[in-house]
Amino acid sequence: MIQNASFDIQDFLPYLLALSAEETSLGFQRLYKDKYGMLRTEWRLLFHLGRYGDMTAKDVCDRARLHKTKVSRAVTALEAKQFIKRTEVPSDRRHALLGLTRHGLKAYEDLSQAAQSYDARLMQEFSPEEQKTLKDYLKRVARL
Amino acid sequence: MIQNASFDIQDFLPYLLALSAEETSLGFQRLYKDKYGMLRTEWRLLFHLGRYGDMTAKDVCDRARLHKTKVSRAVTALEAKQFIKRTEVPSDRRHALLGLTRHGLKAYEDLSQAAQSYDARLMQEFSPEEQKTLKDYLKRVARL
DNA sequence: TCTTGTTAGTTACATTTTCAACTAATACCA
DNA sequence: TGGTATTAGTTGAAAATGTAACTAACAAGA
């Protein structure tokens, strides 16, 4: 059925990454979406605060590679859901420090655990060496 | 600055894939978006028709793993831009065969070439063996 | 041939994302 | 001190996506 052998889209890295990302994100989405009513950006924000501690929205933008409007809306949403709180910084009232509430911490711990299991499930088809290789390569591609 | 060492989001496969996909798709997006005014789904449709020959929208859904509404809209858009034409199948008037116009074929050839160069550029940091390994692993993750 | 079920594709609507413009606070510098 | 430039974050409108309901054509059995 192959017509033009010039270049196969199935070997195009951005396409392979897009398909893989779609394939793997759907399963995890159910966890944070159905259970906590979160959006992808909200989950990322939660994880960054949980893992790396309090930081400003700007820090989240840089670390999580998210646009400021996305972060701004995620902050509003997670604040409304009582997962995070913001504390104004008196020395520079332009930004506010974001941190998890007790409730947010619980959600983070639960989702973090779930992510770990889900990751293990996804990776079970790969040997430990392969797992390390795959993730190392992806970090290089993502410039992490 | 690390607070909770339980599980690092940077090692979570869906997250790594999402970042890598975003990182690599942006560069290519400029090509099909700015030059041809195409959307991601439209580019995928074009590539599938160019590479694998004429097929119905349903075939595209299955092969390209796209939802039928996305494909339906991409078909309408690419038809309006004169990149593809549809031919009704008399034996079953429910579906129509999609194929590239001369204009669409030129766009496909151009973009296919651009994709190849872009892919090479992305992969140049990897040795030939590493390139093969990375893509093989991704195909396994994506269940291709 | 009716009627029930399935399939291909479209349309409508709600949700998300993106983009650009905006406000408010601070920094820099003549 | 005053004026301009930056920076953090918000808001609104437009574009894109996802979901579900819909139409039209065909299939298959009573």
Automatic annotation (TrEMBL), chains A, B:
Residues of the HTH marR-type domain: 10-143
InterPro entries the record matches: HTH_MarR-typ (IPR000835), MarR/SlyA-like (IPR039422), WH-like_DNA-bd_sf (IPR036388), WH_DNA-bd_sf (IPR036390)
One BP term from GO: response to stress
Pfam families assigned: MarR_2
GO molecular function, one term: DNA-binding transcription factor activity
PANTHER family, sorted: MARR-FAMILY TRANSCRIPTIONAL REGULATOR, TRANSCRIPTIONAL REGULATOR, MARR FAMILY
Name of the protein this chain belongs to: HTH-type transcriptional regulator MhqR
UniProt source species: Pacificibacter marinus
Gene name of this polypeptide: mhqR_3
